[in-house]
């Protein structure tokens, strides 16, 4: 009976995760202003950028929600010109990896847990924002940070200092730092402007430069900025690529990644590596995605995307902490329960928004019940020392509803 229950539970979890197997590219923050085209596809070119983006007054790319032609027609041999956007090659590769691609249009909304918004962040696994040129509002910042903490994957791509393309007084390094004013990810973009090709790449096991899509050995920045990292602010933050001659520590990072709650972030200091060289014919674009450093940029971006989405089955030479999908997988969203750390060693902490957890059950993948407790508390520790290392499903009751999470135990 328990095994039958677990199979049913696993099927429900798989459906939930599959239903959110989507990636959202942003076009709300003036990503196509000036000489930029950081979207997968546009059929109409009528945006202008004054104080706010407006349609019908200019000739900049205006991304629609769903790229055309249909992504169901994409095959291994589909050319990146199938879609018209500076990120079309990256987006088409995302489709080849099993993800569904959408764009957030200039008049869309950035929300989290707003059922009235069809493009609410809760419907996506990864949010790609390449060189934003408009500040996030207070409500948008709260939505993004809460979504990442709950299990979302955020790809933050910046550009060099003084790269304000819509002339509103803000550029991407300042905009990202404004989003991260409390430094939740342990990442601060420097206000720098440099170009170089570096081979100062992290070679120890990690999901970004030694991921399933290949080992990254070099990277080229064409006017980008670096980052300063703080393990005091976020103990998980790591640099993946560094400036030439810089020790792989707190300063000079060109690419960085971190966990935040149940979510993940990757930060890149230049938009050039994602550029595929095609898109808006009014812009001058360059192929950094596959045309530079022997395809290393494609490997890095796809490694990052798959790690952010939780779709990567493993990374070269890595252990469970870097391999497993820590995304929240609830049967319902009642109670807003957080489990951390995950992977766990000696214990995992349960924390809710004030609603007590009445009962907890931990099953292994064969359906065996290993632990059962009745904490009746909103914050408590569940010891995991008695559990062999491996994968588990944690089932618990919050109010009148049962929920579930995946748990990884490593000793």
Tell me which CATH architecture of the largest domain applies here. 3-Layer(aba) Sandwich
CATH superfamily of the largest domain: Class I glutamine amidotransferase (GATase) domain
Shape: globular
CATH topology of the largest domain: Rossmann fold
The CATH class label of the largest domain is Alpha Beta
What is the CA-atom radius of gyration, in angstroms?
Answer: 21 Å
Number of domains: 2
Roughly what is the average pLDDT, rounded to an integer? 87
Largest sheet: 7 strands, mixed
Q: Any key phrases for this structure?
A:
4-stranded antiparallel β-sheet, single chain, alpha+beta, 411 residues, 2 domains, 7-stranded mixed β-sheet
Structure, briefly:
This protein is an alpha+beta fold and 411 residues long.
Explain the overall architecture.
This protein has 411 residues and is an alpha+beta fold. The protein has two domains: 2-12 and 326-409, Sandwich (Immunoglobulin-like); 22-310, Class I glutamine amidotransferase (GATase) domain (Rossmann fold). It is 16% helix and 28% strand. The chain has six helices and 23 strands. The strands form seven sheets. It has a seven-stranded mixed β-sheet with strand order 5-1-6-7-16-15-14. Strand 22 (390-398) and strand 23 (401-409) form a beta hairpin. The longest helix has 18 residues, at 2-19. It is globular, with a radius of gyration of 21 Å. The two termini are 30 Å apart.
């Amino acid at each position: 009976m328990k095994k039958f229950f677990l199979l049913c539970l696993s099927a429900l979890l798989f459906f939930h995760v599959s239903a959110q197997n989507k990636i959202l590219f942003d076009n709300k923050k003036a990503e196509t202003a000036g000489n930029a085209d950081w979207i997968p596809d546009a059929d109409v070119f009528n945006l202008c950028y004054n104080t706010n983006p407006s349609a019908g007054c200019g000739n900049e790319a205006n991304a629609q929600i769903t790229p055309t032609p249909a992504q169901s027609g994409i095959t291994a041999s589909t050319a990146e010109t199938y879609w018209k956007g500076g990120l079309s090659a990256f987006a088409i590769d995302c489709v080849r990896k099993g993800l569904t691609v959408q764009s957030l249009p200039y008049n869309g909304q950035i929300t989290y847990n707003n059922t009235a918004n069809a493009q609410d962040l809760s419907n996506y696994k990864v949010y790609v924002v390449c060189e934003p040129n408009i500040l996030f509002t207070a409500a948008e910042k709260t939505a993004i940070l809460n979504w990442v903490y709950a299990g979302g994957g955020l790809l933050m791509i910046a550009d060099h200092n003084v790269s304000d393309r819509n002339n509103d007084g803000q550029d991407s390094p300042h905009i990202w730092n404004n989003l991260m004013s409390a430094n939740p990810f342990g990442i601060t973009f420097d206000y720098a402007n440099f170009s170089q090709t570096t081979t100062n790449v992290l070679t120890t096991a990690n999901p970004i430069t030694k991921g399933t899509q290949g080992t990254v050995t070099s990277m080229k920045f064409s006017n980008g900025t670096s980052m300063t990292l703080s393990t005091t602010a976020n103990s998980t933050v790591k640099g993946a690529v560094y400036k030439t001659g810089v020790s792989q520590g707190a300063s000079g990072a060109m690419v960085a990644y971190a966990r935040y709650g149940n979510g993940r972030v990757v930060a890149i200091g230049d938009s050039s590596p994602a550029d595929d060289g095609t898109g808006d014919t009014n812009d001058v674009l360059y192929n950094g995605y596959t045309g530079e450093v022997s395809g290393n940029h494609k490997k890095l971006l796809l490694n990052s995307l798959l790690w952010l989405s939780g779709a990567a089955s493993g990374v070269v030479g890595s252990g469970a902490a870097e391999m497993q999908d820590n995304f929240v997988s609830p049967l319902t969203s009642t109670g807003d329960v957080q489990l951390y750390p995950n992977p766990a060693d000696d214990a995992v902490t349960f924390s809710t928004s004030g609603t007590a957890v009445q009962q907890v059950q931990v099953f292994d993948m064969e359906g065996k019940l290993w632990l059962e407790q009745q904490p009746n508390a909103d914050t408590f520790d569940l010891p995991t020392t008695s559990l062999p290392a491996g994968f588990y499903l944690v089932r618990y009751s919050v109010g009148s509803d049962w929920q579930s999470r995946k748990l990884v135990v490593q000793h």
